[in-house]
């Protein structure tokens, strides 16, 4: 789970993580703690969409127009946003609303940005994603697919960039996820309850230490936290120079083909995740070991479900991997 989250911070194009596991296994805690590790990015000052001053793909329409006119943009550094999507959120709160009264009286497009605008170039986290209303799932699917959010109200249309890392968590007992949404997640992590008594005691002790003095607890992990922050920052800058041999690419696609994975998302995500892992380890070449580490998480949720199959899909992938790679 932690590795999947780190790889998505290094390369947001992996496409997010779906975390499924038992109640009380620290899924939400882990995701929310990711905020402290997120690096800073360049944004246009005062822009509600966190527009990238250098990449038109991540620019709001107004910022793009200013660039076309040759205006000088004021740039600031800002921490990557993490936006929580509550289960009870309305569609207007998620997508944003148009002030019809202002539009009619003053003749201007008065748009009140929603959570998708805030999440642009950041992380959108949905806890208990399998309980999310169907109409909100459709909105998320649309934005995740196109990278844009379009609001249509009373004959007025407004669009803005909405490219985010989608992170969802849920408990499998509370129902399955729609296949269309599941396919949108780049990686899938399964979390089980810890069975080792020693480790359980350590978790209980750490929890009570945090409750007693949260500030002291945080300070005790400062050095490790900073080290991880630096690792992520250098991996992000190093990522573009990482190469993957054609031979390995062919073997990845062979695994996907023989496992009957639908579409090509599995191939693309596995390549990207393996590169991100190599960048995290400060290597400029992807190894077979990197692929073995990430491939179960990239393909597990893409396999067709066989109700008679008793073997775990992750083990199935690993077996196929060793069969083709050895």
TrEMBL record:
Protein name: Mg-protoporphyrin IX chelatase
Single GO term (MF): ATP binding
Gene3D superfamilies: Magnesium chelatase subunit I, C-Terminal domain, P-loop containing nucleotide triphosphate hydrolases
Family, similarity comment: Belongs to the Mg-chelatase subunits D/I family.
UniProt pathway: Porphyrin-containing compound metabolism; chlorophyll biosynthesis
Keywords associated with the record: ATP-binding, Chlorophyll biosynthesis, Chloroplast, Ligase, Nucleotide-binding, Photosynthesis, Plastid
Known regulation of activity: Redox regulation; active in reducing conditions, inactive in oxidizing conditions.
Organism this protein belongs to: Lupinus albus
Catalytic activity: protoporphyrin IX + Mg(2+) + ATP + H2O = Mg-protoporphyrin IX + ADP + phosphate + 3 H(+)
One term under GO cellular component: chloroplast stroma
Chain's role: Involved in chlorophyll biosynthesis. Catalyzes the insertion of magnesium ion into protoporphyrin IX to yield Mg-protoporphyrin IX.
Enzyme Commission designation: 6.6.1.1
AAA+ ATPase domain location: 13-195
One of the GO BP terms on file: photosynthesis
SMART domains: AAA (SM00382)
Subunit-level organization: The magnesium chelatase complex is a heterotrimer consisting of subunits CHLI, CHLD, AND CHLH.
Subcellular location: Plastid, Chloroplast
């Amino acid at each position: 789970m932690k590795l999947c989250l780190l790889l998505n911070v290094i390369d947001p194009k992996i496409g997010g993580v779906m975390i499924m596991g038992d109640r009380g296994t620290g899924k939400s805690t882990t995701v929310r703690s990711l905020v402290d590790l997120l690096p800073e990015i360049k944004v246009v000052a005062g822009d509600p969409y966190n527009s990238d001053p250098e990449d038109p793909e991540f620019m709001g329409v107004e910022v793009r127009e200013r660039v076309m006119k040759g205006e000088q943009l004021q740039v600031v550094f800002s921490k990557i946003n993490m936006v929580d999507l509550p289960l009870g959120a309305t569609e207007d709160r998620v997508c944003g609303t148009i002030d019809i009264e202002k539009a009619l009286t003053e003749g201007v497009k008065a748009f009140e940005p929603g959570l998708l605008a805030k999440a642009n170039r950041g992380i959108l986290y949905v806890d208990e994603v399998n309980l999310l209303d169907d109409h909100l799932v459709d909105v998320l699917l649309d934005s995740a697919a196109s990278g844009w959010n379009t609001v249509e109200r009373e004959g007025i249309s407004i669009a803005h960039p909405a490219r985010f890392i989608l992170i969802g968590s849920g408990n499998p007992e509370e129902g399955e996820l729609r296949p269309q949404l599941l396919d949108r997640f780049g990686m899938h992590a399964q979390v089980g309850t810890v069975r080792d008594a020693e480790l359980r005691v350590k978790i209980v002790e750490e929890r009570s230490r945090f409750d007693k003095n949260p500030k002291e607890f945080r300070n005790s992990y400062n050095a490790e936290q900073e080290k991880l922050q630096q690792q992520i920052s250098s991996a992000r800058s190093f990522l573009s120079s990482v190469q993957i041999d054609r031979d390995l690419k062919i073997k990845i696609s062979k695994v996907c083909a023989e496992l009957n994975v639908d579409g090509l998302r599995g191939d693309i995500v596995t390549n990207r995740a393996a590169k991100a892992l190599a960048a995290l380890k400060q290597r400029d070449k992807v190894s077979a070991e990197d692929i073995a580490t990430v491939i179960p998480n990239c393909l597990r949720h893409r396999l067709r479900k066989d109700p008679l199959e008793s073997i775990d899909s992750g083990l199935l992938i690993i077996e196929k991997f060793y069969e083709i790679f050895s």
